[in-house]
Structures are given as structure tokens and as C-alpha cells.
Design goal:
The chain has 559 residues and is an alpha+beta fold. The chain contains 18 helices and 12 strands.
């Protein structure tokens, strides 16, 4: 065994020396500091210290070294001006508009010759291009970090020999997904378009709906490596300045390598990260975002995702749907009330069922109780185990239906649930009463228009089942009061999560569990629209001409 060990040790030593020689050769070679084994932190720190040089070849060599001569990095060399000064255009292929690049090259290579300046030098060429030919949509940078930040956003960088500056010109033109209706937020009556992954296209949808110069959109970059563009949209003079300052502070304090979805930002800025209730509303519908902005809230757009965050949020926002406002008020109010009742059913029904059967059978009619007890005979598991088994099985089927292809996902989940429930009943594993309760609870959970709140109900349901199985209706009451106290104690950027019930705001009750007429909702929500509480004048309700002399009055004002 000893000779073998010695041979392996020599082989390992030989490979280690060869690797060390290659590493040393790379570090001391002509490839520059970006071909060595420096980690990402050192590379980022070095790039921040590097400024553009006067020599074009030196700048292009640095750009090539930093980017590793990536195949999608395009560098076009050409001669500009009467003296044919060397210049180069740098952009990332696939992120630019080819027509913009063609126009830019035409302007620089041809139009520069048409100036009335004779014998201009390199500096004058640069100033001519900057001031006369590229006056719109351009930015001047002096370091490599700004240059790479520009081209990574889809812009083109123009470098001219003899000038230690670069012009970053607007040239974005990548592919954008077609506008389609969000699958998770479908409506019967309303717009059929949703946000897309392009932040510019998404903000434009809000601009089309709110055509006011007071709609302000601020932009910032989040993520050290991804440098994701994030924008916040609000109406100046309507949104609370204290909310905006707090939001800017939280966004600027995010220090992470990458932001690929708005859920990352949501976790960094939410008020109650340990709560199962979402405190920041997210949606794919432009009409919902525009409606919330008109109430004094703030929207957060993240490049690369169609989901937009809205804050501050309240619990009732997750139980409301655009259909509530598209239909006349009796129909809209009934649908909303039914949806909220179904939400409570999805949390408490299984717990109430097991509590009544185990601890309070006297609450049921005798005939019904005897029927249920007959179906429970022969079942080998306690009632609480039956419920948990069926709930877990249904959750697995629901998750599988989401992951399967759309053509078979919904059909597979429905057929699977029917077959599984029937097979479990025939095998005597569960009783038919449990199957009915679990099925009705699942149907009730589907009425929630917000996926994030539906998941919260699914998690809380298991806790209520355990409390109902151990403490009876007392446990269910304890769960209800605990949730109630928790909801009214939550805050979303300082705004009570349980409003308008906790605290009680009377004029906001017109748009809570049920809604009143559109012409009667004269006030914005008090906690978010207090800067301009009047939404519309009073007295605009329908009336019969000649029989009602009502005239529109002044806009409603909050107390």
C-alpha cells in the first residue's frame, strides 16, 4: 500500500505545480488584470477605479478585457470627420434597435463631413457630435463603469480617439412579449391587457391611463451585478411624502448581488416579514395599479418581471376585484361579500367541522349526527388525521396541476381529485363527510382574486384544524381572535393593515365589504389620500330632468 500512496502523492504534486505555473503566467502576462483569478468583488472594485483614456485603442482593449471578449459585444470601428479621426461604437447585440445604430453611424460618418468647420481636431469632432448631432437622448460618461452600465441597459457607447469621454446614446430595441391578459387575474368585464417584462412598456401603460404631468416616475438601480432598473410611480401632491421618503430609504439600503423578480424587493421592504399575510400588494393588471395610484398609493416597477408592487396595502385590497367596480353596485357588492365569506370558509370550515363532531355534537340535528357517525364507522383514522390527509393530498394535486402543462394541468388536477376522493372513500380510509368538507373548502379558496392571500388561507387552515381538534370551538374562537388581533396590529409603511375597520373610518366603509354607487364615493381613502381627500363633486347621482333640480356641489372634503 505504501508505494501506491507515494505514486498518487507525486501525481497530485505534479498537477499542483502545473496549475500554479499557469496561474502565475496569467497574472504576470500581457492579458491585464482581468485575466487573472481575482474574485468578483476585486474585479468590481478595480473597474470603479478605471477611467477612460485619451487613446481609443487602449479604451477598446480595456473593454475587451473586462467583458472577456464576449460574443454578443459588438465593436464597430470607423473614421469620423474631415481628418478621418478613429472612432468606435460599442453595443450589445440583441438589446439594441438596428435602425437606431444605422442612423447613429450615418450621422457620425456622413453628417459630420457636412459641418462648416474646416480642419477641426479630435476635441472639436467630439464636441460637434455631442452638441449638434446627438443632442437628444445622450449621456456623457468618463469611466468604464458608466460605459458598461449604459450598454448593459441597451444603449450604444461612442468613443473617439483623443477624447477621454464617451457618449452613451439611446438605442434600446429588444424583443418584448405581446400584451395578453394575466391568467391569474382574469375578469369578466374590463381591460384585457397585462404588464410585460419591459419596465418601459409597463410604465407606458400607466401613462396611457393617467395623463397628468403630476404622475411622477423615479428610477434607480438595484443589484450589484444585475443592475436591475426599478421605478416608483406616484401622483405628486397626492401620495404621502413620508411614505415616499421611507420607500426611497428602504430601496437605497438594498445591497444584494442580483434582483431578478419583484419578490426580492418585496422581502427587503415589507414591514412584517414573519407574518403569513402579505403587506405589499402585487398585480399584473395596469387598471388596478392606476386605480391605486389615484387613491394616493405608490407603485414599484421592476425590470424583467410583469408583477408590480403597490403600497401601502390593506387586507381588503386582496379580496377586491375589478369586476366589483365594473358591474352595478348591487351585483358588485354581492359578489364581493360572497368572496369575503368564502375566504373565511376556506380558513375555518374544516376546524369548525372537527370541533363540532368531537366536542359539540349537540349543535347538530340528531338525524344529521347519526348519518355522519354511520359514515365514520370502519374508518381506521381519527377525524383530525382524515382531514389532514385529505388536505395534504389536495394541496399536492393543486401544486401538480400548476406545474403540469396548461393543456392537461387543470384536467389532471380535477380528475385526480375525483379519483382520489372516490378511491379513498371506497377503501374506507376517509369518510364521505370529510371529502365533502375538503372539496367545499378548496372551492371556496379558489374565489380569492389574490394568489398570495389564498396561500395564506391554505397555511392557516392547518393551524385551525389542530386547534379545533384539541380545544373544540374554543380553539376555533382563539384562532379567530388571534388572527383578528394580528391583522389590526400589522402596518404597511405605517398605514394600518386592517383599515377601514381597525381603526374604524366611517366614510371608507362605502368601499369595504360592500360598495356603494360610484357617484356616492366622493372621498378617497383617508389614510392614503388625505392630501386631496375629494375625489369628485357631490350631487352627481342620476336624476330625472325637470323633476330634480340638483346641481353638482363642491368636491367632498375629509374631516
Amino acid at each position: 500500500m505504501r508505494p501506491k500512496f507515494t505514486i498518487f502523492k507525486k501525481i497530485r504534486s505534479l498537477f499542483s505545480r502545473r496549475i500554479h505555473k499557469k496561474k502565475k503566467k496569467r497574472q504576470s502576462g500581457a492579458g491585464g488584470p482581468y485575466t487573472d483569478f481575482k474574485d468578483i468583488g476585486q474585479r468590481e472594485a478595480d473597474m470603479k477605479k478605471m477611467f477612460l483614456a485619451d487613446d481609443l485603442d487602449e479604451n477598446l482593449q480595456r473593454v475587451t478585457e473586462i467583458s472577456g471578449n464576449s460574443y454578443d459585444l459588438s465593436i464597430i470601428r470607423f473614421l469620423a470627420g474631415p481628418d478621418e479621426i478613429k472612432a468606435a461604437l460599442i453595443y450589445i447585440d440583441g438589446m439594441i434597435n438596428n435602425d437606431s445604430i444605422s442612423n447613429l453611424l450615418r450621422i457620425v460618418k456622413i453628417d459630420t463631413f457636412k459641418t462648416d468647420i474646416d480642419g477641426i481636431d479630435k476635441t472639436e469632432i467630439y464636441e460637434t457630435i455631442k452638441n449638434r448631432l446627438l443632442a437628444s437622448e445622450n449621456n456623457e460618461v468618463r469611466d468604464l463603469e458608466g460605459l458598461f452600465q449604459g450598454i448593459s441597459l441597451g444603449d450604444a457607447a461612442l468613443l473617439i480617439d483623443g477624447t477621454a469621454r464617451a457618449i452613451v446614446s439611446e438605442a434600446k430595441g429588444w424583443q418584448v412579449r405581446a400584451l395578453t391578459e394575466p391568467e391569474a387575474e382574469t375578469v369578466l368585464r374590463g381591460p384585457r391587457e397585462g404588464f410585460v417584462e419591459s419596465i418601459r412598456a409597463s410604465t407606458a401603460m400607466i401613462r396611457r391611463r393617467i395623463r397628468s404631468p403630476n404622475l411622477w416616475i423615479e428610477s434607480m438601480t438595484v443589484g450589484n451585478l444585475t443592475r436591475t432598473e426599478v421605478a416608483i410611480a406616484y401622483i405628486k401632491g397626492l401620495a404621502g411624502e413620508e411614505i415616499l421618503e421611507e420607500l426611497r430609504s428602504r430601496l437605497e439600503s438594498i445591497d444584494i448581488d442580483g434582483v431578478l423578480e419583484s419578490g426580492t424587493i418585496e422581502e427587503f421592504i415589507q414591514d412584517a416579514p414573519e407574518s403569513p399575510f402579505p403587506t405589499i400588494f402585487r398585480t399584473e393588471r395596469p387598471d388596478r395599479v392606476a386605480a391605486n395610484i389615484l387613491e394616493g398609493r405608490v407603485a414599484i416597477f421592476t425590470d424583467g418581471t410583469p408583477f408590480v408592487l403597490v403600497l401601502p396595502a390593506a387586507l381588503l385590497m386582496y379580496l377586491q376585484s375589478p369586476d366589483d367596480y365594473s358591474e352595478v353596485w348591487p351585483i358588485g357588492s354581492f359578489i364581493r361579500f360572497l368572496r369575503m365569506f368564502s375566504f373565511l370558509i376556506s380558513i375555518f370550515l374544516p376546524g369548525v367541522y372537527i370541533a363540532v363532531l368531537n366536542y359539540h355534537p349537540e349543535l347538530l340535528p340528531t338525524s344529521l349526527l347519526l348519518t355522519i357517525q354511520q359514515t365514520e364507522e370502519g374508518v381506521p383514522f381519527p377525524l383530525v388525521v382524515e382531514l389532514i390527509i385529505m388536505e395534504l393530498a389536495f394541496e399536492v394535486l393543486r401544486e401538480a396541476g400548476i406545474r403540469l402543462p396548461k393543456a392537461i394541468g387543470s384536467a389532471m388536477s380535477i380528475v385526480g381529485a375525483l379519483i382520489l376522493g372516490e378511491a379513498a372513500f371506497q377503501a374506507g380510509i376517509v369518510s364521505p363527510g370529510v371529502v365533502i368538507i375538503v372539496a367545499f373548502t378548496a372551492i371556496a379558496s379558489f374565489t380569492s382574486p389574490s394568489f398570495s392571500l389564498a396561500i395564506t388561507a391554505r397555511i392557516l387552515r392547518f393551524a385551525v384544524i389542530l386547534l379545533g381538534a384539541t380545544l373544540g370551538l374554543l380553539g376555533v374562537q382563539f384562532a379567530f381572535l388571534t388572527l383578528l388581533i394580528h391583522v389590526v396590529s400589522l402596518r404597511s409603511f405605517g398605514i394600518p393593515y386592517g383599515a377601514p375597520f381597525g381603526p374604524l373610518i366611517q366614510h371608507d366603509l362605502k368601499d369595504s365589504v360592500v360598495r356603494t354607487h360610484w357617484w356616492d364615493m366622493i372621498h378617497r381613502p383617508r389614510l392614503t389620500g388625505f392630501h386631496e381627500p375629494g375625489r369628485q363633486p357631490t350631487g352627481q347621482g342620476p336624476h330625472t330632468p325637470g323633476m330634480d333640480n340638483r346641481k353638482p356641489k363642491k368636491r367632498g372634503k375629509g374631516k
